[in-house]
Structures are given as C-alpha cells and as structure tokens.
Amino acid sequence: MKKMSKINLENYKRSSIEIEAQSLNIEKFINLLWKNNIGVKNIRKKDLTTVSLEVSLKDYLKVDKISKKTHTKLKVIKRKGIAFLFIRIRKRNALIFGTVLFMCILYYLSTFIWKIDIVTEKKLSPYELRRELTSYGVKEGIRKKNLNIGDIEEKLTKNNDEILWVRVRVEGSVLKVVAAERATPPMIVQETTPGNLVAIKDGEVVRVYTTSGTALVKKGDVVKKGQLLVKGEQGREGNIYEVPAKGHVIARTFYEDVKKIPLFEKVKERTGNRVKNIYVSIGNKKIFLKKEMNNFSNYDKIISKKGFLITEECFEIQEKNKAINKKKVIDNYSKEMINKIKESLDKNTEVVDEIVEDKAESDYIILRVLVVGEENIASQEKK
Q: Rounded to an integer, what distance in angstroms lies between the CA atom of residue 374 and that of residue 251?
C-alpha cells in the first residue's frame, strides 16, 4: 500500500480498507485519527496493543502519516470497493494493451482463408480442382469478402464435365469444396428365363402383387409349402407365352411353441430340528467339546469359527410340493417363448398378432403360444 502515495486517492471516496494497527500507545493513535477528522468504523480490539479498524481509502495517506508519528505498525487485511480494480488495471497497462492488440490481430487474421479443403470421389482429382480454383484467383491467403461462393460453384460446374454438382462453403478460416462426379448408370439386365413362383412356407394369403406372370391364388386362400403361386405364363387363350414370374404374395404365417409346466415345484424347508457340535481341530484330528448324533437324511450344514473353537450346526430339511403362482409363471414363460420365436423370424416379417393359450392337464399346464406374422412367401421355383 506504500505505492498508493503516487495515486490521487481523493477520487476513490466510496472504497475502504480494513487495517490492523499495532502500537504500544494504541489509544493515542485512534485519538489522533478522530482529531484529524478521519472517519473510522468497526473498531475491534484484538489485544492490549492491537486493534482492527476500517477507514475510507481517500484517508489512507493521512492514516499512514499519523502511524509514523505514533510509531504504529499498519497492516492492510481487507480491501473493499471498485477502486482497487482500477488501481490494478492502471498497474497492468502493458498487459491490457497486449491483450487488446492480440485480439485485434486474431480478428484480422480470421478474415482470410488459410486452408482449402477439397473432397472428391474416385475419378476426379483434388489437384485438378485446386489448379482450377487458382485460375479463378482463389487460393490460401485470400480475403473472405473477396469470395463469391455462387460464382465459384457455377464456374466449377460449367468448366468441368466430370462434375455433377459442387458445394463451396467457408468454415472458419477453411474453404471447403465438396464435388460429386457424374456416373454412368449401370445397365440393368432383365430376367428373361421363364419360371414360376412357389410358396416357401405354409400361410394364408393376404395380398398378391404381380408384375409378370399369372397369379393362381387370391386373398383368403390357404397355401402349403411348395404350392404354385404365380405361373410364368401370360396372354389369352390361344396366344399364351412364357415369361419369368415376378411379384409378391403376402401371407399370414404362423409360428407355434408348446411347453409343459408342472403345477407344483419342489421346495426345501427346515423342520426346526438341529444338531450342534463344538470341537477344536489339531492337525487332522478333531477334539469334540460337545457332540450330538446326526440322524438327519437331508440337512444344511453351517460351520463357524471363533478363535480355536469350531461350531458345526446341522439343520434338518425336508422337500415339499409348493403350488406355483400360475399367472406369474404363464406370463414369464409366454414372454420368453414369444421372444424366442421373434428372434428366429426373418427381418422382413411383420408380427401382427400374439396368442397365448393355457390348459390344465393332470399336474401340468400345457402352455401354447402362437405368433402370427405377415411376409412374402413367394420364391422362384428351383428346377
């Protein structure tokens, strides 16, 4: 705070500092502050020779002079007010100026294009496009405001027959050029070999679409695997000619799974009878402190060790038949069976219905699930 003498503190009337003052005659120091009309607040005595107090920043130089007269040692412990921010800023003019200058240079450099990124396909070379852009005056270091994106795209498309379309965009300091090539469409070879469409599985016909050949089935027909669906013939009677049968026969297909579930499950329960043995193990020998005969045919054994003593407890158990939760078991098994069927279906099969049926039989439940799908069952007949 000694450097504050070089700053006009009268301009900072609303800022204050908290000072710790230490003197053998602290009362004299405080009285002199009041006598010189220095506003003092929040005086707190810490010990016989030390107090803390709050004064206005504009009075700091006066306080400093009085402290020298009374041989009082001052220590600033807290600062309040925006004045200290301005004081720090004034001390860091070079840093602020450098930061502003750096931002200005950075902004200026961002107005230029420093990289041209060209993306093409197989035949078109990025080098050719870069050379063509250079002929238009577009190269690294050009000002962004001198770029006419629409004009560049039009010139590239017009002057190069291999380009189908081109997109030019400015992304930061990068000029990105993406070009698509013209491609000769592949020749489509039409199937000319006559043939029929047959069913690859059983189903109930829902819809029939044919682009070539004569449909032999209609909506509602139930067909079997291998049955002829679309015949490779067209024309009227007396003028019939063979063609390759093409089309789709959408049918409802059925996938079934059956499971036999027992109505009772075996559970083990403790009867309450118990045998307890206590022994000490030395080597391979057991020295029993308490021993009871175990006559249980089925039991659970629990062994616990505490120090040298080993406790062995045997609890008699017996098996009982427990009725299952019918609804819960049917729900769990049916979901598992349906999910298993769905996993085996072709990805083009659309599931339209799920049917679950259960029937009690003796000590069992006969669970039947049926998944109904819609799919194309027509396939070219193999010869």
A: 5
Tell me, what amino acid is at 298? N
242-263 pLDDT tens trace: 888 888 999 999 999 999 888 8
- When mean pLDDT is compared across 44-58, 130-144, 174-188, the lowest value belongs to 174-188
Q: Left (φ > 0), alpha (ψ -120 to 50) or beta: where does 325 sit? A: beta
Question: Cα(first)–Cα(last) distance of the chain, in Å?
Answer: 104
Vertex 280 angle, CA 277 and 284, to 5°: 110
How far apart are the C-alpha atoms of 306 and 276, rounded to whole Å? Answer: 15
Alpha helix ranges (H) inside the chain: 26-35, 60-69, 83-91, 93-109, 126-135, 149-159, 326-344
Other beta carbons within 10 angstroms of residue 375's beta carbon come to 22
**Cα–Cα distance measured from residue 71 to residue 53, given in angstroms and rounded to the nearest whole number:** 17
Q: What is the DSSP letter of 144?
A: G
pLDDT recorded at residue 3: 46
| Rounded Cα–Cα distance for residues 317 and 80 (Å) | 80
Residue 53 pLDDT? 87
Tally of CB atoms within 10 A around 71: 12
Task: Note the helical H segments in 272-373.
Answer: 326-344
* H/E element, 206: strand 203-212
